[in-house]
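Q: Two folds, back to back.
A: First:
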Amino acid sequence: MSSKRLFASPGFLPRLLWIDGLATGATAVLLIAGAGVLAPVLQLPVGLLRGAGLVCVPFVLWVLSLARRPRVPGGAMAAVIAINFAWVAGSAWVAFGPQWQPAAIGIAFVCAQALVVLVFAELGWVGLRASASGRRAAA
């Protein structure tokens, strides 16, 4: 299967959302439950880590509810992509902004999770464009 057909296939976006939701859920659990252990290692505040995990919970529930649909609405998918890009921007602010001074391992942790989220956003964008062009071609 060509990559163009893969991205345009009806199941691509729901599968991507399942993976995004599960990965974000795992990150949320790690940040909420492990904030006390992670904070001194990463040199980031417990409240920041736990708050970031708590912010993820409604997103996870929404993304997993979208993933259950046979066809993901384009506007909802665009919102997921925008939120993912916003998370990447916020992560860059945490890692490199003036508010906090994380340890090198903290910068690596924040950048690694941001890179994963960036991949989800990019795949979502490619899949959304491919599914839209596929619908236009079928019409």
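A: Second:
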Amino acid sequence: MGASSDTMRRSPAPEPVQAWIAQPPAWLDVQPIENQPDVGLIDLDLGEQEAIRFGLRRS
């Protein structure tokens, strides 16, 4: 999975969020993102970095 979904799977994510990601709805499409270092994103957490990379990949 990705960093964001990994974060949702564990504490301190609220239990309803953990339950939701454990059995995600059919419409949810979690896609892996290559974790390539980018000095422009170094101050962001991994989930934020992946979201930006995903957006750039989709454009």
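Q: And?
A: The chain has a mean pLDDT of 83.
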